[in-house]
Amino acid sequence: MTRNEQGALPTDIYLSYVSSLYQHRRTLVIGMLSHVVAFLIVFLKSSDSFYLACAAAIAIAWCLRNLDMNRFDHQDFSGANRAMIRSWENRYIVGGMGVTLTLGVACGYAVAVTREPFSELACVSVTLASMIALVGRNYGSERVVLLLSSSACVPIMIGLLTLRDPFMLVLAVLILPFILATWMMASNLRGVLYENALAAREIRTIAGQFDAALNHMTHGLFMLDGDGRIVVSNERACVLLELGDRAELKGRPIGEVLAGGARRMALDPKKSDTIVRQIDFLIEGKRSRALISISDDVFLEFSANRREDGEIVLIFEDVTARVEAEHQILQMARFDALTGLPSRAYFAELARNAVADGAPDRHVGLLLIDVAEFKHVNDTRGHVIGDKLLQAIGERLEGLVKGTDAIAARLMGDEFVVFFPNGTNGADLEERIRAVHLCMCGNYAAGGFPFDVTMNAGFVIAKGGDFRLEDLQIKADLALSETKARGKGGCTAFESEMDARYRERQKLKSDLREALGAGALQVAYQPMFLPDGSRVACCEALARWTHPERGPVPPSVFIQLAEEMGLVTDVTRFVLRQACSDCLTWPAELSVSVNLSVLDLRTEIVDVVAEILEQTGLNPARLHLEVTESCLMDEPVKVQAVLQELRERGITIAIDDFGTGYSSLSYLDALPVDVIKIDRSFVRNIRKDSRRFKVLLGAVALARSLGLKVVIEGVETVDQLQLLSEHGCADLIQGFVFSAPMPGSAVAALCQKRARKRSAQTSRTLIA
Description:
single chain; about 775 residues; alpha/beta; five-stranded antiparallel β-sheet; disordered N terminus
């Protein structure tokens, strides 16, 4: 400790030391009575009125000090500063010195004046006894101990010195070490107490911080002793379990406390017993974690940890939000967000559970339903209305199966499924299935629009003991595909022949993949002639596949397979590369035309075309790329950008099968197109069907007005050619009337033949 204690001590400790001066007042009363009695005895012995005055002075000093101490008791120290505390310390010193100075003067008077042995002995004894009590009572202030001891001893020293006796002089000097020893004893005691005070303050601070942290935890906490009694708890625990005042929980058994909380929450006895039992399992170490439902909308998760000393820390938190979120996630995983019907995965779980609960000899059925022409709804009314229509369909399907054992779900897109787990026989089950399909067809309202909806359906019926959901789905899907192939609106039962055709189709897909990998496809070319047949202007590249066992496979078959397998872009790359290479072997005025699918336009087709042109060295002006109207319907903005970039590279863009789609007229003016190819359906029977011919003439007039060249496909007879030529309908003619598709090597020979024929006709004309 430093000498400047006011500067060294923290304010709160300084206040506590000064406060200690005003405590233990009984010792002051005892000291006051001892002093007064001693002086009265000396007065009676010596008849010296000086000692009577000393007794009176002691009594008056005690009264004044007592009044001052009462004022100290009523003083508010909540905002006390050092100056205020020091003033009270000084007031105490003044009062104390009034007593000690009286004692010292009395002793000095007895030694130097009266020199009566009894008076000397009595005064010195009382004073020295006060010095001993001085240390124990006033350790809180170095100044108090030093000043009070000095004020008591200095008069004695003066009295001894006045005697001029060498021995008395020695006694006077020895009083100084006594004062120093008194001061040092008080200082050492005060230092020890100061360290303890700091430690106590730190402990209080840590305890306060711990208590604050404990009570601001989001978790509830109990610390239990080895007997399961509460040692520590926090406010959050009391709030979560409605336990009341936290101070009343200490020392009580946890089971009793939880039972009381259950009564406050008005839980039924069974629920209360369940909660207590689960907590007991945690305390006993049978479980490490437990999720407890306090009520329908409150969930708490408890965990327990046993310490080495046998105490148990029980922590719990409110996980209601997490449980609700998990429930919502489970709901989202199990049910379709749009229709509210079970999802594919949850449907499979429900179906398996339903079969497991039934008899193995019963019949089960699976019905797949597909909305016919649903894409047309999205294209014409928008996806929002399409979604509302699916919701309406889902609501009707849910109403049909409600109250029955059937299970309905939405698979994906516009496909729905119904599982019938308990059919008495196949005939009755088929009747139920067809009834559901019939009810699903009909009128719907969605977004303010009426819809007459037709449903394609396929179903399969099997024995419950043979149930394998994956197999049933495959068979029902085959039946659905058969319905779509036959027309729309039917409901077809699965037959074994469908499975055989499916396996055959899968085998054909595998063979096609191998053929693509081995480069076994071929390319044939159908020429496009000038209307007079004098010259070939362009050849359309056509993919061909000759199966090693089946022979030639129609393009309509293997191209569809390639689209289903995602390989159509590979076919396009093969044809494009081969066509560019073959075109280099033809006359320079001859071009080649290659078809692009809608899937090609979703890839980096521009880069692919540029790479092939660079590798083969073909002039981009000799390459034509054909897209169908169906390509223009899908993502028109993106398609327009792709075609524009291709056209800027010098490539000619043509619309194939013009007139067969929905959007020809609406997009024709906006698209970067050079050529339209009028579909063969407009040419068929044009001599007899005047209406068809007028439509063809209108399409040609539209193309001419937009500055587009016209190619007419499917011209097969001379009569058709003559009629088209008379009306100037075409810039180029493509069809069997001039030539069938041929190998690339035959194109050059055909061009030479036509050139020789033109030359001969020119010679005859000149001769004539």
